[in-house]
Structures are given as structure tokens and as C-alpha cells.
Amino acid sequence: MALAARLPQVDLMLSAAGEEVLEIYKIPLDSLKLRFRVFRDKTASGVPVGMLYDDVYHTVIVAPATSNTVAKCALGLSDTLPTNMFAQAGKLGIPGIVFACDTEPVVVTKSPHDWVTLRPRRIELDNVKRLRAIDCCQVVCSAAELETALDTRLQQLGLAWNTSSS
Q: pTM value?
């Protein structure tokens, strides 16, 4: 969320699961609405996807992407707002950056209560490999890699990070 706050003009597209995770991590939706335009996954057709066709968005960032979302994106499934945005952006040639969670044989991550060690299965690692092969998609594996990818994309677009604290 700290990286998103530093980006110019960010809209957040939340899946139903994403909203649940925000609650688990005690990030109130109302607090996000103070900084971002927030779209919730409440329509079957993913109405905000239409803004891709109106050149509203130049980049789609899926972050963090769970193994479920990675699998859907890798297999071309688009049944949530984030996966629909990713699929349609790719069809339009709009670059996508995916911060995949399960990218290494051992992943140490912060849960709501503590740090945990996960061992992604071969299927999760294979899905990340499939995702890397998709046109217009860059997979990143850490917050630092995400920041570097975003910095590169901003430079390509002639844009800059926000420097204000608001």
C-alpha cells in the first residue's frame, strides 16, 4: 500500500478476497478511499474493465497476487475484477506487472499474527512460470522488485513518484 500511495493517480480494484484480506490486516476500506479511487468486485461483468478501452489506464498492477490469482491469470481465467483487468489489459497490449507470492521453493512471509514459512507446491511454481510467458506481463517476486518495475514503468511514461505525504 505504501508503494501504491507513492504512485500518481492510482485506482484500486479489489476482489472479494482482497477485501477480506484488508480486514484481516486491519486496513479499513474507508481509509483507502481517502487516498485512492476504489472499485469493488460487485458486478458480474467487471464494469471498470471498460475503462481500459477508453485509455484511462496505461498499466495494470496485480499486487499482491495469491497463488489462486496467479493460476487464473496464467490459465486465462478472468472471473474476478483483478483477473478480468489483467486479461483485458493483455488483449489490448497494456503492460501488466504481477507481484506473485509463491515464486520460490521456500517463502517466508508475514501473516496477520506472525512470520510463517511456506513451501509452494510444484503447481504454484509452474503457474508462475506460465505467467512469465504471457505477453505484456512482467512477474516480480518481492516488494523491492515491484518498486524497481514501477520505477521503470514511470520512467517509460515520463511520470514521477509522488513526493507528498498526502
A: 0.91
3-state secondary structure the chain: CHHHHHCCCCEEEECHHHHHHHHHCCCCHHHHHCCCEEEECCCCCCHHHHHHHCCCCCCEEEEEECHHHHHHHHHCCCCCHHHHHHHHHHHHCCCEEEEECCCCCCEEEECCCCEEEECCCHHHHHHHHHHHCCCCEEEECCHHHHHHHHHHHHHHHCCCCCCCCC
Per-residue pLDDT of 73-98, as tens digits, reads 999 999 999 999 999 999 999 999 99
Helix (H), strand (E), coil (C) string for 90-109: HHHCCCEEEEECCCCCCEEE
pLDDT band at 46 (very low <50, low <70, confident <90, very high): low
Residues β-bridged to residue 65 = 100
Q: 130 in the Ramachandran plot: left (φ > 0), alpha (ψ -120 to 50) or beta?
A: alpha
Rounded to an integer, what distance in angstroms lies between the CA atom of residue 115 and that of residue 158? 38
